[in-house]
Amino acid sequence: MLFTSPKKENKEINLKGAVQINHSSFFVFKDTDGCTYLKSGNDEKLHKSVVQKMINSNPHVTRLLKRFHIKPSIDTKTLNELTSGHMNDTCNIAMGVYSVLSNDIKNKVDKGSLKEASMLHDLGKVLIPSKILNKPAKLNFKERKIMNIHSTLGYELLKTQNLSEETLALVRYHHQNLKHTGYPALSADNTSSDYGVQIISIADKYSALREARVYRRRLSRTEALLILYREVREGKIMPAIYNALFKYAELYDVD
């Protein structure tokens, strides 16, 4: 694959996926001339244009926003922060967890889709109002319902971009759990494996717990692992996936 810098003339740009180089995530774009190039999340003009095209290409996105009375505003600042921070970190953790799993479990997971989905899983947050994303307090019931549609929004946006069905399913269901009590509800055409969902879900949660948020301090490695262990006891996380995270954290996550 040839990576070039985009030319300045106005061309149609499509998002083709995401890659990670030296533990940093980049979006992969292709223009109408077939040139492929990488961009981080800091090119606000480009990303706003691409996300707007995704919205225009899929009426389900507009209908979903209308249902929850959300003004279709694209928050590219959030996208930049997610790309350089949480989404990149989630990818690092997910691949670290994958690396220490048994070969039996690895053979049940599409590594490429797992990596790509972990870099794209929170793309839908670019359409969630910033006053909800950055609220310095617990969300109320209505705000929580709006926040919870970010995974579906991400799925609907990316569905227009010719990504694999497995990648799309992992983005859509990264907030599901082993008891299937997460969100959104699993559909009959779900193509993701429980193992893939479990890996990206636990990586997402661990990353979030280890970050300082506007409503709480950054949790220690031990505190984060203890919170996730409760979900193991509740039957929401596979013990094998949790044990892999524990090994990864002991080796690579230094407080």
**If strands are numbered along the chain, what order do they take across the biggest sheet?**
1-2-3
The CATH homologous superfamily is termed Hypothetical protein af1432
Name the overall outline: globular
Compute the number of strand runs.
3
State mean pLDDT (0 to 100 scale): 86
Low-confidence stretches: 1-9
Explain this structure:
This protein is mostly helical. The protein has a single domain (44-252), classed as Hypothetical protein af1432 (Orthogonal Bundle). Helix content is 51%, strand content 8%. A three-stranded antiparallel β-sheet has the order 1-2-3. Helix 4 packs antiparallel against helix 6 (111-120) and helix 4 (86-99) crosses helix 13 (239-252).
Strand and helix layout:
Blueprint: E1 13-21, E2 24-31, E3 36-39, H1 44-57, H2 59-67, H3 76-84, H4 86-99, H5 103-106, H6 111-120, H7 130-133, H8 141-147, H9 150-158, H10 165-172, H11 194-209, H12 221-233, H13 239-252
Antiparallel strand pairs: 1-2, 2-3
Helix pairs in contact: 1-3, 3-4, 4-6, 4-11, 4-13, 6-10, 9-10, 12-13
Summary of the model, kept short:
This protein is mainly α and 255 residues long. The chain has helices spanning 44-57, 59-67, 76-84, 86-99, 103-106, 111-120, 130-133, 141-147, 150-158, 165-172, 194-209, 221-233, 239-252, and strands spanning 13-21, 24-31, 36-39.
